[in-house]
Amino acid sequence: MFSLFYGLFEYLLRREEYHVLILGLDKAGKTNVLERLKTQFTQFIGLDPGKILPTVGLNVGRIEVMLSNDLQGAPILVLGNKQDLPQAAGPQEIAEKLGVSDSNRLVKVLPACAYTGQGLKEGLEQLVELIKMSPRTSRLRLKTAH
Description:
- By secondary structure, this protein is mostly helical.
- The chain has helices spanning 2-13, 30-41, 91-98, 120-133, 135-145; strands at residues 76-80, 107-111.
- Helix 3 (91-98) links the parallel strand 1 (76-80) and strand 2.
- The radius of gyration is 18 Å and the shape is globular.
- The two termini are 24 Å apart.
- The mean pLDDT is 77.
Protein backbone atom coordinates (compact mmCIF):
# COMPACT_ATOMS: atom_id res chain seq x y z
CA MET A 1 0.00 0.00 0.00
CA PHE A 2 2.86 2.36 0.83
CA SER A 3 4.39 1.85 -2.61
CA LEU A 4 1.07 2.71 -4.26
CA PHE A 5 0.84 6.02 -2.39
CA TYR A 6 4.52 6.70 -2.91
CA GLY A 7 4.12 6.09 -6.65
CA LEU A 8 1.10 8.39 -6.81
CA PHE A 9 2.90 11.06 -4.79
CA GLU A 10 5.97 10.80 -7.03
CA TYR A 11 3.83 10.97 -10.18
CA LEU A 12 1.93 14.07 -9.01
CA LEU A 13 5.06 15.97 -7.96
CA ARG A 14 7.31 14.83 -10.79
CA ARG A 15 9.07 17.53 -12.75
CA GLU A 16 10.26 17.02 -16.26
CA GLU A 17 13.98 17.51 -16.79
CA TYR A 18 15.34 18.43 -20.18
CA HIS A 19 18.91 18.75 -21.38
CA VAL A 20 19.48 21.98 -23.27
CA LEU A 21 22.58 22.85 -25.26
CA ILE A 22 23.33 26.57 -25.60
CA LEU A 23 25.61 27.50 -28.46
CA GLY A 24 26.66 30.91 -29.68
CA LEU A 25 29.45 33.03 -31.02
CA ASP A 26 31.89 34.81 -28.73
CA LYS A 27 30.22 37.74 -26.94
CA ALA A 28 26.79 36.62 -28.14
CA GLY A 29 25.34 36.81 -24.61
CA LYS A 30 25.17 33.12 -23.64
CA THR A 31 26.15 33.78 -20.02
CA ASN A 32 23.72 36.72 -19.83
CA VAL A 33 20.95 34.40 -21.04
CA LEU A 34 21.83 31.79 -18.40
CA GLU A 35 21.97 34.36 -15.60
CA ARG A 36 18.65 35.95 -16.64
CA LEU A 37 16.94 32.57 -16.84
CA LYS A 38 18.34 31.68 -13.43
CA THR A 39 16.71 34.82 -12.02
CA GLN A 40 13.39 34.23 -13.81
CA PHE A 41 12.96 30.52 -13.14
CA THR A 42 14.73 29.73 -9.86
CA GLN A 43 14.92 31.18 -6.38
CA PHE A 44 18.50 32.29 -7.09
CA ILE A 45 19.41 35.74 -8.33
CA GLY A 46 21.68 35.73 -11.37
CA LEU A 47 24.62 38.02 -11.86
CA ASP A 48 23.97 41.61 -12.87
CA PRO A 49 24.54 41.87 -16.67
CA GLY A 50 26.92 44.79 -16.17
CA LYS A 51 29.17 42.62 -13.98
CA ILE A 52 29.40 39.61 -16.31
CA LEU A 53 32.85 39.24 -17.82
CA PRO A 54 33.59 37.25 -20.98
CA THR A 55 33.67 33.55 -20.18
CA VAL A 56 36.97 31.83 -20.86
CA GLY A 57 36.45 28.18 -21.74
CA LEU A 58 33.09 26.70 -20.85
CA ASN A 59 30.36 27.88 -18.54
CA VAL A 60 28.83 24.57 -17.63
CA GLY A 61 26.42 23.36 -15.03
CA ARG A 62 26.37 19.89 -16.53
CA ILE A 63 27.69 18.68 -19.86
CA GLU A 64 27.19 15.41 -21.60
CA VAL A 65 29.04 14.71 -24.80
CA MET A 66 26.63 14.01 -27.61
CA LEU A 67 27.30 12.81 -31.09
CA SER A 68 25.61 14.62 -33.95
CA ASN A 69 23.34 11.57 -34.42
CA ASP A 70 22.11 12.05 -30.85
CA LEU A 71 20.81 15.48 -31.81
CA GLN A 72 18.95 14.27 -34.89
CA GLY A 73 15.38 15.54 -34.75
CA ALA A 74 16.02 17.68 -31.66
CA PRO A 75 13.91 20.83 -31.43
CA ILE A 76 15.85 24.04 -31.96
CA LEU A 77 15.25 27.47 -30.48
CA VAL A 78 17.32 30.28 -31.95
CA LEU A 79 17.29 33.43 -29.83
CA GLY A 80 18.25 36.51 -31.80
CA ASN A 81 19.93 38.22 -28.85
CA LYS A 82 20.88 41.90 -28.54
CA GLN A 83 17.62 43.14 -30.07
CA ASP A 84 18.16 46.37 -28.12
CA LEU A 85 20.90 47.30 -30.59
CA PRO A 86 19.86 49.17 -33.76
CA GLN A 87 21.85 46.91 -36.11
CA ALA A 88 20.42 43.66 -34.70
CA ALA A 89 19.02 41.24 -37.28
CA GLY A 90 15.36 40.36 -36.80
CA PRO A 91 14.02 36.81 -36.46
CA GLN A 92 13.02 36.51 -40.14
CA GLU A 93 16.46 37.59 -41.35
CA ILE A 94 18.17 35.20 -38.91
CA ALA A 95 15.96 32.30 -40.04
CA GLU A 96 16.75 33.00 -43.69
CA LYS A 97 20.51 33.26 -43.06
CA LEU A 98 20.49 29.99 -41.11
CA GLY A 99 18.35 28.30 -43.74
CA VAL A 100 15.71 27.21 -41.24
CA SER A 101 12.76 29.20 -42.54
CA ASP A 102 11.49 26.28 -44.61
CA SER A 103 12.89 23.52 -42.42
CA ASN A 104 10.80 20.48 -41.51
CA ARG A 105 12.45 20.27 -38.08
CA LEU A 106 10.94 21.83 -35.01
CA VAL A 107 12.67 25.20 -35.23
CA LYS A 108 11.66 28.54 -33.75
CA VAL A 109 13.54 31.83 -34.19
CA LEU A 110 12.62 34.51 -31.67
CA PRO A 111 13.93 37.96 -30.76
CA ALA A 112 15.51 38.46 -27.33
CA CYS A 113 17.59 40.79 -25.23
CA ALA A 114 19.46 38.96 -22.47
CA TYR A 115 20.59 42.25 -20.94
CA THR A 116 16.99 43.29 -20.14
CA GLY A 117 15.48 39.80 -20.13
CA GLN A 118 13.07 40.65 -22.96
CA GLY A 119 11.92 37.55 -24.84
CA LEU A 120 13.76 34.99 -22.68
CA LYS A 121 10.76 33.72 -20.74
CA GLU A 122 8.72 33.45 -23.93
CA GLY A 123 11.64 31.72 -25.64
CA LEU A 124 12.01 29.13 -22.91
CA GLU A 125 8.25 28.51 -22.89
CA GLN A 126 8.36 28.00 -26.68
CA LEU A 127 11.29 25.60 -26.29
CA VAL A 128 9.37 23.53 -23.74
CA GLU A 129 6.42 23.36 -26.15
CA LEU A 130 8.74 22.32 -29.01
CA ILE A 131 10.22 19.60 -26.81
CA LYS A 132 6.76 18.32 -25.83
CA MET A 133 5.63 18.25 -29.50
CA SER A 134 8.75 16.53 -30.73
CA PRO A 135 8.43 12.85 -31.65
CA ARG A 136 12.05 12.56 -30.54
CA THR A 137 11.02 13.26 -26.93
CA SER A 138 8.58 10.35 -26.95
CA ARG A 139 11.22 8.03 -28.39
CA LEU A 140 13.74 9.08 -25.74
CA ARG A 141 11.21 8.51 -22.94
CA LEU A 142 10.54 5.02 -24.21
CA LYS A 143 14.28 4.33 -24.53
CA THR A 144 15.03 5.41 -20.95
CA ALA A 145 12.01 3.58 -19.53
CA HIS A 146 13.50 0.20 -20.41
